[in-house]
Amino acid sequence: MATSSQTPSAVLPLHEAPRPLPSFVDRDGDLWVPNGRTADGELLLACPAPQDPADAGAGESFPWTLRSVRLAFGPLKAVAA
């Protein structure tokens, strides 16, 4: 009779749930939320409700990457979505 430590068994990885992407608050208090990824996999962000309504603009949104938001509006603070 074999014990469980003597019988061969496959080790299966545990399921990893996708981690929620953080949102970011910029120096002006605007909230930036994840909005997809570039073809290279870089995180895209959108600011759906800027503090200053004039910043909302009209038409198609500029593809803001995390890097470009950090450079233009940083420092950024990560917050739970």
Portion of residues within helices: under 10%
First-last Cα distance:
53 Å
- Please count the helical segments: 1
Radius of gyration: 21 Å
Number of distinct beta strands: 5
Q: Which geometry do the CA atoms define?
A: elongated
Lateral strand order in the biggest sheet? 4-3-2-1-5
Low-confidence stretches: none
Order of helices and strands: EEEEHE
- Beta-strand portion reads 15-25%
Instruction: Note the main sheet.
Output: 5 strands, antiparallel
Q: What number is the mean pLDDT?
A: 84
The structural class is: mainly beta
Outline the secondary-structure elements:
Layout: E1 23-25, E2 31-37, E3 43-46, E4 64-65, H1 66-73, E5 77-79
Task: Please sum up the structure shown.
The protein has 81 residues and is mostly beta strands. The chain has 1 helix and 5 strands, in the order ββββαβ. A 5-stranded antiparallel β-sheet has the order 4-3-2-1-5.
